[in-house]
Amino acid sequence: MKIGSQSVSNLGMGTWYLGEGDAQQSTQEIAALRYGIEHGINVIDTAEMYGQGAAESLVGQAIIPYQREQLFLISKFYPWHATLNTMRTALKNSLQRLQTNYLDLYLLHWPGDTPIKETLQGLQTLQREGLIKQYGVSNFDTADLRMAHLTMPSATISTNEVLYNLDSRGIEYDLLPYHQDQGIATIGYSPFGSGDGQEIHLPDALAELARAKQITVHQLLLAWVLRNNDVLAIPKASSIDHVQANIAAQAVTWTPQELAVIDQAFPRPTRKTPLKVI
């Protein structure tokens, strides 16, 4: 898929909670990120919020062996860092932790009190300075995006990163169509649910479907998010085994009958629901 004019893998690696363990765990996480990079995943998603910079620092260590242009690095800034001066400071701190001199994509982590026009103007300035290639938002609902476009028509919001999984399909009603209409790439976080990934309880019919397809329940959840090749999924990359399973999920294909079974268990939205955030 594409973010702006940049081609990226439709499977990325998320980093929430990475870099917060002991040295052994950090070594495992670095190995997982490097395995992903070496097996075709070029997107790494992080944020200044994750471990108060610990995840960015871990990513910075992990990417040392690779050419920077091979990678598509995403980070996000707090809403209270959404003015130009605070944003620039936050960005430079993130770049220092990531050991790079630019980001491919910089996102406002969620809507805040700073007027969106001021934030978008700041992002445009950072883009002109070469510190970021593209910019976007996260956790914005359709009304938030419409207001941003109305307030700042010249802004190129390339991406919106939102919660998307089998149990959180609300964005399919109007947000995904709006993204497609406006050329906004969709990044879907938490494809397995929150926490340890056990938050989404699958009925027996879907557990049986996973067994029939010889995939794990987690692979079913991820493959479903990836089914149309129009969402960039960013499951957490905490071990090589997890990354291997995630990569294998990309090869899963679905018949209309199988998708109908899934839709019966987790129906498509038929009305507008507020955007879920975790």
Automatic annotation (TrEMBL):
GO MF annotation, one: oxidoreductase activity
Domain NADP-dependent oxidoreductase: 11-264
InterPro entries from the UniProt entry: AKR (IPR020471), NAD(P)_OxRdtase_dom_sf (IPR036812), NADP_OxRdtase_dom (IPR023210)
Gene3D superfamilies in UniProt: NADP-dependent oxidoreductase domain
Protein name: ARA1 protein
Native source species: Paucilactobacillus vaccinostercus DSM 20634
